[in-house]
UniProtKB/TrEMBL annotation:
Domain Amidase: 24-127
Organism of this sequence: Candidatus Lachnoclostridium pullistercoris
Superkingdom in the source lineage: Bacteria
Pfam families the record matches: Amidase
Lineage: Bacteria, Bacillati, Bacillota, Clostridia, Lachnospirales
GO MF term list: catalytic activity
InterPro entries reported for this sequence: Amidase, Amidase_dom, AS_sf
Gene3D superfamilies for this protein: Amidase signature (AS) domain (3.90.1300.10)
Protein name: Asp-tRNA(Asn)/Glu-tRNA(Gln) amidotransferase subunit GatA
Amino acid sequence: MEIWEMTAVDIGKRIRQGEFTSEEAVRSFLERARRGEDRIHAFLHLDEEEALRQAREADRGIRDGKYTGPLAGVPVAVKDNICTKGIPTTCGSKMLADFVPPYSATAADLLSQEGAVILGKTNMDEF
């Protein structure tokens, strides 16, 4: 079974057990996204470099005991109606095409605080 086929709970558990790293999990998801994106258009924003940076940080945090929860190191995508600091948030609308929020919504903040790795923003119908 490929990493991208596993549940978030299973990925987190296997990362904590040392079966693979967060960086390996993120690379698996990024490869999967690249393979189908031209047909599926699932992502409005996918930041591979930032996701890999977050994954390496999560791996260090897991090793050092900073991140111990079930989402530590787990790759996630955030719907485009959830504000994420520094990442374009358009709600699927051309009207918000240039909006980059100066803050993150509580949901996105909590994911980051637990060591989850935000891959990017997923597509949606306008508003």
